[in-house]
Amino acid sequence: MDLKRLFQFALQGSGELEQYAILLVRVSIGLFFAISGANKLFVAGGTKPVYDTLVEAKVPFPRQTAYFVAGVEFVGGSLVALGLLSSAASFALAIDMTVATVTEAIGTIPKGLSPLSWLDDFLYLPEVLYVLFFIWLICSGPGRFSFDYWLAGTLLK
After folding, report:
1. Which string of DSSP letters, residue by residue, matches the chain?
2. pLDDT given for residue 43 in this prediction
3. What integer is the mean pLDDT of 113-136?
4. What distances in angstroms separate CA 59 from CA 86, 99, 104, 127, one per listed residue?
5. Is the pTM higher than 0.85?
6. Using one digit for the tens of pLDDT, what is the confidence trace for 42-75?
């Protein structure tokens, strides 16, 4: 690799590798949410922590909402991992994580921090990072290695 290509890669990345990066992030975050949702749905007592959080946040119908949230995570995560209806699934999961941030995660940030320290703690929350990943996936699309890519090529000919 010559020096010019090395500098170009350092400054601009590699379009040749972009599809693999999208695949890695999409499958990883999709599997994470599919497994998390499955554990809530199919393991005894799995929805209890979600239910307790919803009761504390005074969300109406907490039991039904806990199952709904777990279903969104399981189905949405599975769809994102497959790259099938991935923008819609990413949108649903971004909303799920935004609600989780507002109802629970922000409450873990210590009180009395300076604005920059508060922002640092806020951006360190995993839920915020997940929302950013989902926004990126919505904007970038699921990539070449997805069912959506195949469907678009088949249906839009």
Report:
1. --HHHHHHHHHH--HHHHHHHHHHHHHHHHHHHHHHHHHHHHSTTTTHHHHHHHHHTT-SSHHHHHHHHHHHHHHHHHHHHHTSSHHHHHHHHHHHHHHHHHHTGGGGSPTT--HHHHHHHHHHSHHHHHHHHHHHHHHH-S-SSSHHHHHHHHHT-
2. 95
3. 97
4. 28, 11, 12, 19
5. yes
6. 999 999 999 998 898 888 999 999 999 999 999 9
